[in-house]
Amino acid sequence: MLIETTNLTKRFKHVTAVDGLELRIRQGEIFGLLGPDGAGKTTTIRMLCAIMDPTEGSARVAGFDTVREPEEIKMRIGYMPQQFSLYGDLTVLENLVFFADIFGVGREEREERIARLLEFSRLSEFQGRRAAHLSGGMQKKLALACTLIHRPQILFLDEPTTGVDPVSRREFWDILTELHLQGVTLFVSTPYMDEAERCSRVGLMFEGSLIVCDVPERIKELVEGELLEVRPDRLRKAAQVIESLPGVLEVQTYGDLLHVFVDSASRRAPEIQQALTGASVVVHGLRQTRPRMEEAFISLIRKRLKER
């Protein structure tokens, strides 16, 4: 295993940020760590990057212990935190040169690597522009290029696409896919459920605990029942009516839609339509659909909360 944790725990006074984490990540995986704010994702990444020591338990990255051999780990990983420290008054090229100095990249290798990274990150034509004058998406690409300057074996990315537009998010993930094809192991934390679909495996974290860890398709299969998508004219009234019906397992709200989990879609769809019509709720659409990661995540968290 390239990354392995055993009972990894981190406490801050009376708060347990990470609670007994057990992870096994193989070389070449894209591993996605999902969870809401405060779930423990950033703390987990900092411990794996040997920046923060655990309170209990242990972690090994690339065969080295994060507490006893941190420098060995730092030579083999790249870490891109949520707020990457680019130097705004330096140009794109100057930032890359600066990070090459930090990581001790020799002058003979440096020119070739920087040229390759500029092309790889689609920043070649912007190399003379100051980092502060780049768009949010371009700054993320530059941060990634700086993180890759020493050719790390493992790349840790903490919510790398937060705050950028959808096009930049897609372009950033295209770059990550290319890295994956080159054999780099990626550990990505994200609040975006659609990004989880791109991962080899996904871990769902909530309040410091790992709720489930599996491939995305299997996680979606954990949701109980079948899914109906309802578009009513009065959302709150419709939800109240549907929640009281037999065979309804759960109701989730998405914008102007209701996602209704039922024991049998073919049996319950006509009953829902009839009940809503009887309550003077107009139904603009009702269809069966497949659960996404988002529905699975919400359902699994609700189940965990009910078990308390």
Description:
- This protein is α/β, with parallel strands linked by helices.
- The chain folds into 2 domains: 3-220, P-loop containing nucleotide triphosphate hydrolases (Rossmann fold), CATH 3.40.50; 224-290, Alpha-Beta Plaits, CATH 3.30.70.100.
- The chain contains 11 helices and 14 strands.
- The strands form 3 sheets. The protein has a 6-stranded mixed beta sheet with strand order 6-7-8-3-9-10, sandwiched between helices. The chain has a 4-stranded antiparallel beta sheet with strand order 2-1-4-5, covered by helices on one side. It has a 4-stranded antiparallel beta sheet with strand order 12-13-11-14, with helices on both faces.
- It is globular and about 75 Å long.
- The model has no long low-confidence stretch (mean pLDDT 92).
List the helices and strands and how they pair.
Layout: E1 3-12, E2 15-25, E3 30-34, H1 41-48, E4 56-61, E5 64-65, H2 70-76, E6 77-80, H3 92-102, H4 107-120, H5 136-147, E7 154-158, H6 166-181, E8 185-190, H7 193-196, E9 201-206, E10 209-214, H8 216-221, E11 226-232, H9 235-243, E12 248-254, E13 257-262, H10 265-278, E14 283-289, H11 293-306
Parallel strand pairs: 3-8, 3-9, 6-7, 7-8
Antiparallel strand pairs: 1-2, 1-4, 4-5, 9-10, 11-13, 11-14, 12-13
